């Protein structure tokens, strides 16, 4: 077993900064084993909302990192620097900085979008991918599934007690309501849909740190709009796809199942009674799925 004293300084446990593409990229190292890089979603949340992920840290040296202009990382003050290609390039830059020839990747939501795109372009550098409620395509099927799941919430007591709540959210997500809203207002209107238990939303979103500037830049750049479906067959490494059965934004039908169909060496785990954030809503089942997969892929 490798001793902790032989680990490169850039992989020592704790907080670090790497210079990548002219930006200061902040990352946090936890755990031990093969390196696993975990980017934040790219549109503004800092890495704190993902930490800790104990099942990953039990098997891997997990490198959580703030994508450009998020959390403690810096980034350009222009929208054209926040395309999917820029985020993929930053993952590759961090891999090189860490001195790791082969790594695992794990990404949640738009972080899942990043790691799938990296796998399409750079499978030769990977040991495996964990895609957690990730998005591969924002197309008509996704729009239909999202609307269907939102409409199904009308019978839930949380929404029944709030007349007009579902109508407002549907109008926002379908584009018929274009009212400018702050991040807090967006979370208040849409947050409960992200959870099987909508009461969890207030506490989770209140604890998130969001960079408002990069949220605007990434939206203007069209980040998350790339359709990855036609390229997924080029991912040549084992891939674990985790999705909540009640995730309205990255649903099991338009995202999880289609990713699984196209990545030839993939495992699909649908977590019951779970929305978009499985390690918070169903932590035991999330850990079990990750532990079982990593016990094979990253044995200690």
From TrEMBL:
Matching entries from InterPro entries are given as: AB_hydrolase_1 (IPR000073), AB_hydrolase_fold (IPR029058), AB_hydrolase_sf (IPR050266)
Tell me any Pfam family this protein matches. Answer: Abhydrolase_1
Mind naming one GO cellular-component term on file for this protein? membrane
The AB hydrolase-1 domain covers which part of the protein?
53-281
Top-rank taxon, per record = Bacteria
Molecular-function GO term, any one:
catalytic activity
* Gene3D superfamilies in the cross-refs: alpha/beta hydrolase
Q: What is this protein called?
A: Lipase
* Natural source organism: Conyzicola nivalis
